[in-house]
Amino acid sequence: MRTVLSEIDVSIRFPALFFVIAAILWLVVGTGLTLINALQSYQPSFMSGCEFVTYGRLYPAATNAMLFGWGCNVIFAIGLWIMARLSLAPIRSGGMLIVAGLFWNFGLKVGILGILAGDLTGAEFLEIPGYATPLLLISYALIGAWGILAFRARQGQGAYVSQWYILAAFFWFPWIYMIAQFMVVWFPARGVVQSITSSWFAYSFQNLWLTPMALATAYYVIPKVIGRPIHSYALALLGFVSLALLGSWTGMVQLIGGPIPVWISSVSIVAAVMMVVPAITVALNLYLSVKGERTAVWRSPALRFVMFGVLSYFFANMIGSLMAFRSVNVITHFTTFSLGQNQHLVYGFFSMVMFGGLYFMLPRLTNREWPSVRLIYCHFWGSALGITIVVVSLIFGGWLAGNQMNDATVPFLEVVESMLPWLKIHSMGVVFVAIGHLAFIINFLWMLFATGFIRAKQGPTLLGSANQEGAA
Amino acid sequence: MKNLPLLFCGILIALAFSFTGLVLSSYIQLGSLAQTTEVLDEIGNPVAGDPLYPAKMSGSAQQGKAVYTDLGCVYCHTQQVRRAGYGADIEREWGKRHTVARDYITQGSVLLGHQRIGPDLMTIGDRHSDANWHHLHLYNPKITSGGVSTMPRYAFLYETRTIEGSASVHALQFEADSNYAPAAGYEVVPTDRAEALVEYLLSLQLNYSLPEAQISE
Amino acid sequence: MSDEQHTKDNDEQELHDALMREQDEPSNGSSPVPIFILFLFAALCFWGGVYLIQYGGHFHKDAYTFDYNPYAEVAVVQVSLFDRGAKVYNAQCSACHQATGLGIAGAFPPLAGSEWVTNHQESLARILINGLNGPIEVAGKQYNGNMPAFGPNGLNLKPLEIAGVLTYIRQSWGNQASDVTEATMITYMDQYGSRGTPWTAEEVVVDLSAEPVSAAPAAEPVPVEAPAAEPVPADAPTEVAAAH
Questions:
Q1: Which of A12, A178, A453, B53 has the fewest beta carbons closer than 10 A?
Q2: B59-203 has which fold?
């Protein structure tokens, strides 16, 4: 069995490394753009002389670079690897995957440059201009097909949890993206139907693409590191089914109070509140799977990141469900509360889990260990502290601003002024995250272009005392 | 999970379910909305001879909308007025009534917006009907906000040039002792893009009723 | 692996170090779902149903508030003939005949103080339904133009609208004449609707049937809103009417 796994790792090594390197390059770009954008939010004169980096263009460029650049590339890397391993099916013709990946990243580059040049569409997460998206869809078709073919080639009858999530996500993403492109970008629907479709896409992207892939990673890494099975098959099934049924119905919470009939937002409110079910189910299942293995969680870098992510998943969904109630939403809507909540889910959950996945996967692909424990600490604490600061500052600031906005006696400029300290704290958080990323990148490059002593390193890189047995 | 066909069906149905329930049904309900008159006649038809609303934008306003989109204004400004009693939109006089789906059918791309880092713009043409105010605001938002605004400057939409002969009629009119005015002998003139954008902003008005949303005086 | 192999494959083992210490591939445990989650799910489904009934606005496309009643009347206003006529006039007629009803000298005849307007209803209706071409004398001046048709062979206004606008012009700007009702207009439409050619000033007054009996208005026109009902002073003739 080990030989089969090693064969698989070899077969997928170059495509996966390609996607990881692409993801990291986009991580650099995205983090940089986000940092500039965070500074611009309270310092409007920062870089405002040049049209190409005005706030309104940098913001979508940063989010798209992070979501489609970092997010999708790391999904391709880890998702394909996990699918290949669980299916015990080596990837054939990995070269095609690299070609597809090149096209994906080229299309994305054209898209981001298009956004900076002003061709953005204005719809959230769909800002990439219509001339670049066909390239993305075509290259995705190849990548997705590879993942699904790996599943079909699987040996054995059943399918493990991670495989359901990955298979489902590989099907859902092109569908929602294609519908969104047709109805919002290429042949825009008339009136608010456009906004409805774009909100449906935005939340389906988070709940049916990012979330399943991250959960698949968590469900794979946790038992592999701990060496115990997942606590409950039934809980895993319930979590999957409830996410699948509810995930794409929640989008209209973005339009509560807006120019749409009330039934549309009410339906999404019901779905968003019911999302506590997958949140509790998955968090309970994964928590009970690691219960009693506290040392393993703290010592394994992969597991630390993954468990932080799972905890964030739980809290992000709880807050998200709370935000859906109209009485809460009237305060939080249109404020940075929703931005913070979004970061909570996308970075605090998805990115942290994927970092965990990378810490687990890369030693197996490169046959080397992580060079520096300190840099891993730096990455973990930078990211963890950073995202906590970001989320807390945006949520608190947003809550206060929302209350002020609902009081018509408070002039709007006063609301703007009261947000300033929160935006400054938010930038501090982004700086921490950027430092964490820097540490990760240095560690990764060191591992990749390892000099002699790295190659000779034996034993897993663990946090805490390094003298104990244990998987990494 | 051993029943793969069931898994596959479940995956497809899960998405088809929400697509039909949200996107398709809203398309069915709202896709055929058309312009109509402010009130309907006795048999529920638009009153013949009355002007139809929402009115279509003029050509230069549409060009301005393209500028609005390409500068990403939608990331800080919304264009929707929430109903009375839900939020303070109407009390802040951001609109005389709440907006409904029909208000957006003549817009090529609907930029409802998700963040109010800046105020709502649905009725900005009603609230500030002076083009010079808009030009000053875009040139440097601190001018019109007493130095407080966090909106970025769009000075690249304007041209500072020497005054040749007499000042251009298009030049921005600054206050007498403004710190932001250009040096003596210079004037700030809007480019075509700035003119179009201001034309668009001035066209953002909500001064008509619709059968499903009447302005109550 | 045997000891022999172990020592020979030292290099290989090093290469696969990470792999060698890996645990088995993941599997599932078989604990059941805790009952509270099932209760929670069921309770949320129930709550969801109640919520949709309370806040769903009956799933109606015009429900933008929760107290929307789909069976309530839509905003319909019973518009008086005069008010309806005012609207039609502003939209269709004021471009030529002006909001003041004074027309434009030499081009468009006035309606204020015009005998064509205040006399027989039928000739007026004929003009509206089929249009009028050629020379015509109004208030002592000669005009020669083309009035477009507003009937089925022309701009296709409804009988109610033509009745309204005729009522309006007959009772504005100092004119005092009877209402033109929708019923009357319908009879005229039946008679003249199919005619394809405009009238001339001579033939439009020929062969008129008896004037239908209808209440003459009060001494002065009494609209609810009086857009331009006052007689306009002669020194303000150049007011440009709203575009139609």
A1: A453
A2: Cytochrome Bc1 Complex; Chain D, domain 2 (1.10.760)
